[in-house]
Amino acid sequence: MKKLKSILLATFLSISVMGLASSSAQAVVILNINGGGQLTGAQNLDINGTFFDVIFTDGTCVDLFGGCNQNSDFDFFLFPAGTASAAAQAIKAQVFQFSPANAPNGELDFQPELTFGCESTRSCTFFIPDILSGNASNPITYRKASNNNTRSGDGTGNENSSSTFDTALIEPSVGVDNRAFALFSPSRTSVPEPGVLGLFAVGLVGLGFARRRRTI
């Protein structure tokens, strides 16, 4: 029984400390820039305490989200209500209004054409399908993040639309392609930092002393 308790305690320490390591290592947003100097996505966006990667791409909801006809097709189906809206806010605040060292030509929201899927030099909108709206003609509720070359137009919002609208097409009202989808997935970065590994080692040493005392 004592041996079992020791194993369980060691397992708990490992999971707790490695979880802390993962969160700590993922705190820095990394922009993905292609060979043409365009932003194609970002890593380690903090969305309500969980870290995600995002890519920007053109296409239709049907093609990109496995049919786009049920809530389980969408990236945040298993997360609390409002997570897709928080994701739109994260794009705006952590990507477009952020100037890390690898941002091309400064802040990205002042040059929306530098983001993949956008040709407009004035503004662009990035869509995140969230839930079925119940509207027969526009059945999908999308959360969206927009950036503007003056920043005054930056923001987030909602829009009901079809599952087949194509962000690769030119928007008639502006005459250029100014829309794209944002696809999210759990962050791939999970590298323990040296300081956290030190804490893990201390925990294991303490466990060893505790086991030694029980055997004396």
The stretches of 5 or more residues where confidence is low (pLDDT under 50) are 7-24, 191-197
Reported for the largest beta sheet, the result is: 7 strands, mixed
Spatial sequence of strands, sheet with the most strands = 1-2-3-7-4-5-6
The average pLDDT is 80
Q: Calculate Rg over CA atoms.
A: 22 Å
Structural class: alpha+beta
Oligomer: single chain
Count the beta strands: 7
| Count of alpha and pi helical runs | 4
Query: What is the 3D form?
Result: globular
State the end-to-end distance: 17 Å
Whole-number total of structural domains: 2
Helix content: 25-40%
Strand content: 25-35%
How are helices and strands ordered from N to C? HEEEHHEEEEH
Protein architecture, described:
The protein has 216 residues and is of the alpha+beta class. It folds into two domains: 1-26 and 190-216; 30-189, no CATH class. It is built from four helices and seven strands. The radius of gyration is 22 Å and the shape is globular. The two termini are 17 Å apart. 26% of the residues are buried. The model is unreliable at 7-24 and 191-197 (pLDDT under 50).
